[in-house]
Every structure is written in structure tokens, then in C-alpha cells.
Hints:
Layout: E1 2-5, E2 9-16, E3 19-27, H1 36-42, E4 73-76, E5 87-93, E6 97-104, E7 109-117, E8 122-131, E9 137-142, E10 144-147, E11 152-161, E12 164-172, E13 176-182, E14 195-199, E15 209-214, E16 220-226, E17 232-238, E18 245-247, E19 252-263, H2 266-279, H3 285-288, E20 294-296, H4 298-301, H5 307-320, E21 324-327, H6 357-365, E22 369-374, E23 378-379, H7 384-388, E24 408-409, H8 415-431, E25 436-439, E26 449-450, E27 453-454, H9 456-473, E28 478-481, E29 499-501, H10 508-518, E30 527-531, H11 545-553, E31 556-559, H12 568-588, E32 592-595, E33 603-609, E34 615-622, E35 644-649, E36 670-673, H13 674-679, E37 691-699
Parallel strand pairs: 20-21, 20-31, 21-22, 22-25, 25-28, 28-29, 29-30, 30-31
Antiparallel strand pairs: 1-2, 2-3, 4-9, 5-6, 6-7, 7-8, 8-19, 9-18, 10-17, 11-12, 11-14, 13-16, 14-15, 15-19, 16-17, 23-24, 26-27, 32-33, 33-34, 34-37, 35-36, 35-37
Helix pairs in contact: 8-9, 10-11, 11-12
The chain binds alpha-D-galactopyranose (GLA).
Amino acid sequence: MIVLKSAHNSIVFQIVNKRLSIFHWGALLSENQIGTELALATTRPVSHSHWDTPTTADVMREHSKGFIGHPTLEGHRDGKAWSTYFELVEESHTSDSLQATFVDDHAKLSMKLHYSLSHDGVLTMNAVLTNNGDADYVLNKFIQWLPLADQATQVMDFTGRWSHERHPQRRDIAYGLTTREEREGRSSHDYTIAQLALASNATFASGEVWSMSVAFSGNSIHHVEKTQFGDQSIGAGELFLPGEIILKAGESFSIAPVQASYTSAGIDGISHNFHSTLRKRVHHPTNIRPRPLTLNVWEAVYFNHDIEKIKALADVAAEIGVERMVLDDGWFHLRRNDRAGLGDWVIDPTVWPNGFTEIIEYVNARGIEFGLWFEGEMVQIDSDLYRAHPEWILHEGNRIPPLQRNQLVLDLTHPGAYEHVLEQVDHVLSSFKIAYIKWDHNRILNDAGHLGQAAVHNQTLAIYRLFDELKRRHPGLEIESCASGGARIDLGMVEHVDRFWTSDNNDALERQTIQRWTSLVIPPEMLGTHIGPTHGHQTGKTTEISFRAINALFGHAGIEWDVTEASTDERAILKSWASLYKAKRSLLHSGRSVRIDYPDSHAFFYGVIAQDQSEGLFAYMQHLMPSSNFAPKLRFTGLDAGTNYRVAISQEVGAPRTLQIKDIQWGKGVILSGAALETIGIQPPTLAPENGILITVEKV
Ligand code: GLA
């Protein structure tokens, strides 16, 4: 047996008769626990009406070997090579990686699988398929599968739509195939971000959880399967459109990576595994510099770009302590509304007669960096680009795909279109001091063909290439991935950008659920979380500034509000909140995210604890009317039981509205041990709906 080990979990492979199977994926096992005795103890009987030899969880799930569930590979060569029988011909491994090569001489295919387990327990699975035949091989589907232990009885995934991303659904695993598919050509608002399998008792803090995600920003499939034999497994892969992937004779194809993780430390354990793994990357944004407090002007001005207004915003931003200001949509040729301009990435002289130099200098003089919005994968019929190259859109036959937000998708797999975008964007970035770009993607790809063949896969690779090339040409450039809010947040894009726009919905209550679940695998420092206006533009609701400020703190914080209209009191709160963010960002962006299993479903209680358990910052957020007069006590998990902590309510975010005559007694500070905080907890105030408190926890 071959054991790959991380700090807390292991995956055990077995090779029998030139077949590679997975014996165990779960809790940490050491080599001396694994051996013939264990194999003997777990070997199945031969049951009535089944194969004469016991079956194993092969990585290449094939009908030819007796596997009758969903296969690993599906494809054919003009109707032939439809059934494969891969044999392992080569294998090499270390303690955290395994490479295996399989060949099927009859189907004339070979397959290289690569598994690599990070120290913190994220398994990355890569595969390369080669066509050794002399005719084209059509790849229909490739799913990476991992077996699930019997105690995984539930599945949880995430669904969403515009301004309502990543809402969980948890259900029992039933017999058959559970499927989540995305066909938008981008990961989508509805993308599950991770599919979880869970023991029924798994909570945020404890219990066994297995996760799997397609690490790619195009179409995707996530499955859980339970067969009539009781075998259950979790699988994921890119969704290929008909004929999208055809391997010519001798050609190889790299399959989009899939990432998986196991923990016995509850749903938060999965977050811990991903956050820690991503934070170890050299290019992880916090390894380069602290996350600057951002102001995006979109909801303050929309398309009405006026230099005096932008300067006024910069003045207030400077007073608050903002460090980066982003000029959103509306600056380029013809772009006075959303009906024209996409495709022409040149500054519109009617709006910016002297280019950006004046505004950038003005902003920089106030100690603020300048950022700019693009949507380079798009084109509009009313644009110079479309007039010159109507053929540069993703399309099929003579059809023009239905418009969405009056726009079409530029075919970046066309070298001319790719060069056009690259050079225009590069020119703007080379001409001005621009530290940061927000890159949007505001429509679904449908009928997305290139010269008669489906092109979502290649379009996705093209945008990765373009981002990487822009970063190569402009060292230090940061890119934010936006797609009508959070429609392109995934573990593929995370390798090419520095930040995600989590959602277009800036209503702090709505953001609570969206942020909670987007940070399941993406570290909070990569998620844009802004204080929206007092009267929310998406929901039309009025929300207290303290609730909005606390919500925006747990991410890469910013403001998306016409702050020139903020009152003196509101500006004072924004100022103290900004200083608090700067003081706490190293904790917020390196600590362990903790979501507490709070007994009242009308409130969220969550926080971040320093890795050395010396401090923490927590939010108690009352969403709806408290279910009882006195809310359940706040029991903190993740602190050190033997350490004493001073716990207090932070005053820097303004006061909440309460439903009480006399306040709780500990607000100014109380000293309790980690054990008392975990077992007994502290009494929160009784808050009105959509109000919250920010709690500081410091070792004394
Ligand atoms: C999308 C984005 C917004 C904003 C607009 C501009 O909707 O999600 O944040 O940039 O486009 O048109």
C-alpha cells in the first residue's frame, strides 16, 4: 500500500493486478497501521448476484473491470474505443505525491494521474490523457473520483443567483447519482465552490467532512454517487460541451485540476485546510503586502464620471483613511451607459479630456493608490471593435447569441482578439500609475463556439493566460476577479488573481450568508467586503452603520458608498473603523476562521483567532428578531483553555440598536479563561434585528 500523508489526514492507495485503487481517504493513518491484516479485515465477501471476485475502489472506474457506477472516463474514437481497460504501467511516489501512468493498448490511450497532498491536507488531482491512436479521440467526460467512508451520510452544496451567491443546501445521500452542473461558461453565481460530504453529526466545529471542487473557471460537474452495493464516492470534473475536446493522433490533453480535502474538525476544518494551503503560496497577496483599505466609486457615481465628484470622493476617502480608490465602469470610449463601449479600452476624452494623469496625481497626493475597471472578455455591437471585427465573437453558425446586458463575448481564442485586448489594456496600464484592476465578466457564455467548435475550455485558458501576461508585464499589478459580483470565484481563478468581488449585493444582512460560505475555501483576505450605503441599492433597506461596518471587516475591507453624503457622525465612525481595520488586518488575514454553531438561528456568531491563540476578533450579528428575550450565551471555540483573555465590546464601529433598558455588564471588559469562555460563555446584549457587536479577545 502507498500512503500519502498531510498534517491531519491521509490517503492510502493499493496496487493489485496492475490496478490502482484507493483504500482509504480520511483520518491520518501511519504505515504501521496499514498492512495485510487490515486488508484482510476489510475484504468483502462474494455476494449473490455479483462478481466472483471482490471489487475495489479503482481510480480508473471502468465497466470492463466490473464497475457499473459512473465511470472515470467517457469518450470514443468514431464509435470505437468506447470501453477502456487501463493497466498501470508505471508508478512513483513520495510521502505526499503519487504519479501513475496507465495504458490501454486496445483503445490506444494512455493516462497519467498525479496526486499531490499539501501539508495542510488539500489534495490536488491532475490528469493528462494521450491519444495513441491514429484517428481523433473525442473526450466526452472525465471525472476524478474519491471513495467516501460509510459514515458520510450527507451532502452539502451551494446554489445561488445574482446578488444571492452561495446558499447552502444539505441533504441525505440517497442511492443514485447526485449532480450539480454549471453551463454558464464561467464558474457562475450558482457554482457550488465545494461539494461537501459529511457525517450526519458534523457541525462547524467537529465531525468528519470531505470536500471536492473543480479548480477551473469554466463549466463544471460535481457528483456524489451511492450504488446499490453500498459504495459511495464523490467526484468532480470539467463539463465538456459536445465535441469540445477532440484529441488528434498523438495529442495530449491536460484535464482541469480537482481539489479535495478531508477533516475531522468539522466544516471549519475544511476552511482551515484550504486557507492554510493557499496562504503558503509565495504570491499569496498577504505575503506581498497588507490588504489596502479600498473605496470603489461604482455605487457613488455609476456611469456619471465627473472629475470634480471623483476628487470630492478622494478627499473624504483620504480623511477616512482609504488606501486604494477604484474607478469603475464608465471611463472608456462611448461608455456613458451599459449599451455601448465594451471592446474599446481607450479613455474617452469627452469624460477624461486630459486622461487619468490629473485624477491619479490628485488621488496619489492624498496617499491613495488608483485602480481601474475593465471587462476585457466582452464586446458591444455599438463599439469600434465590433464594427471592425464582428467575427470576433464567440458564436455558432450565423447566429448572434442572445444579448445579456447588451453585450456579447469576445472570442479570446482568436489570436487577433486576444492581442487586441492585451495591447489595449497594456497600453492603459503602461501610460498611467495603476496598481490594481477590477476585471469584470458580466454575462453568461452560450452558443460559445470558435470556428464551429465549442470553445468554453479554451476561452477559460485564454483569460488565465491574459491575466498572467498582464502581471508579467506589470510586476506588482493586482487583479480583482468580478463577474456580476461573485460569478467567477473558484479554486482555478484563485491562482491568477488577488481578490474576488464577493457579490454585487452590499446589503450587510445578505452578505452575511454570502461571505460565510464563499470563505469556505477562499481565505477572507481575498474577498472584497465593502460598507454599502445606508439605504442599500440592491435591497432598498436601511441598515445601521455598525452592522455594515462589522460585516465588512471580515474580508478585504472597503467602502462602496457615496461618502460625500455621509454625515459627520458616520464619517467619524468610518474613520475609527478604518483604523481598526488597519490595526487588526494582520490578525483577520492570517488567523483561523471560526463559525460558531450558535443555538439561535436568527443570529450568526463568528470570528477569527490568531494561530498562536493570543487574540481574536468576533462578531455577534443579530439577523432577525431574537428568538428569546435573552439570547443564548456566546461560547467561544478555538481559544486556549488555560489562557486568560480580556473580552470587550469594540467601540470603533458605532453602537448597535438594542431591545433592552439596562445593558450587559461586561461590555467594557471582563477577564475569563479560554475554558470558561468555551464551556459557559458570555451573555450578549439583546439586539434589534440587523444589529451586531464586535468583540475583541486579548490574552492577558
Ligand atoms: C458588475 C459588477 C459591479 C460593477 C458593474 C459595472 O455588475 O459586479 O461591481 O463593476 O458591473 O458595470
